Amino acid sequence: MATSMIGFALFALQQRRTAAAGREPLVTPALLRKPAFTVGLGGIALFFSGLIGTQLVLTLFLQIGQHFTAGEAGLGNLPLAVGTAIGGAVSGAFLADKIGRKVLQIGPLVQLAGAAVLWSELDGLDAASFSIWDIALGVAVAGVGAGMVIAALFSFILAAVDDDEIGSASGVLSAVQAVGGSIGVAVFGSVFFAQAKTGDFTSGFHRALIVHACLLVVFLAITFLLPEKGRPEELHHGITLDAAADSSGTKQHLTV
Q1: With a threshold of 0.85, does the pTM exceed it?
Q2: Helices 35-60 and 136-158, interaxial angle, to 10°?
Q3: What is the full per-residue pLDDT of the chain (256 aa) written as tens digits?
Q4: Which of 26, 47, 173, 197 has its CA 20 to 30 A from that of 149?
Q5: DSSP single-letter state for residue 230
């Protein structure tokens, strides 16, 4: 960890020197001077840490706690995948455009509701007759909330940057997403196995849900600091439709 921090500091210094020399840096230093973007980085790390970590715990619970095969555990994640697809479709198709960043606040609330349902489902489990249907509702509801956030989160954070910073900003967001997922695997895996080593797999899942709920509450607070409207899809690459049309017309003119 200490080595990675030193490496990050050296990378940041190198990027500053590149920008000061008039060359194009990999990461535009000005990005980190934009409060909404910086806060958004934290939001992405928290959100994907919780999402990936909880998905890992679900898989471990099914395989180790309920003796599912790897294939059965994969199918056991199907309610989460279906819920995420539904939430993403609703959010991406019209909800984000209609209600703005409120979609980022509704999403974690739906996830918390799903976690509450899943908690009660875990309390009522009969180990002798367990099937994935016993927890499918809670997992699916949580997936719907996650999908609502996933479909819209990047566009709201990118709305805080200038057009010429889109490429650099997108790369940073993707990197932080990956780092957040990795941290989630480490943290949630540790939380689950702290209880699982005693044979109490349900309590391990319960503790993971508590950690996830805490992360969602912090993420929910962060969403109020993001732009109220997301960046339109056609501007994600810093190009407007009008500019694209003008460029196309120019090319046609030159061809003629």
Answers
A1: no
A2: 160
A3: 556 557 656 656 666 666 666 666 667 777 878 999 999 999 999 999 999 999 999 999 999 999 999 999 998 899 999 999 999 999 998 999 999 999 999 999 999 999 999 999 999 888 778 999 999 999 999 999 999 999 999 999 999 998 888 888 898 899 999 999 999 999 999 999 999 888 899 999 999 999 999 999 999 999 999 999 988 865 555 444 343 344 334 334 333 3
A4: 26
A5: P
